[in-house]
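fyi for ur records
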Amino acid sequence: QVQLVESGGGLVQAGGSLRLSCAASGRPLSNYAMGWFRQAPGKEREFVAALSTVGSTRYSDSVAGRFTISRDNAKNTVYLEMNSLKPEDTAVYSCAARSVLYTTQTFSRESEYNDWGRGTQVTVSS
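which gave:
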């Protein structure tokens, strides 16, 4: 099991940028496929971005071209760079991890992940 802690959330104006971090402990993240999900008030949690163990990425249509997921294995941390933020991006953002073998496969369903962080709040004002 890997422990995940998100940081980097906050309040930003529309059009601004934030970088979220997901720091892991307990296991090396290089052995995990990673994902970012978000949950807005009154809505179900939704997929945002995914990263395979070898660097393949996948994004939801709503964030493609604006968000970038990446990892730094030396720091055991995964990032979500968010640009051109919109009020509809307001949500609690959580990272998730799935232990997998060396693969290009990415995962976009909550049920495919084993470990979760508690989340960080992102608020985008208009």
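The mean pLDDT is 96. thats all i got for now
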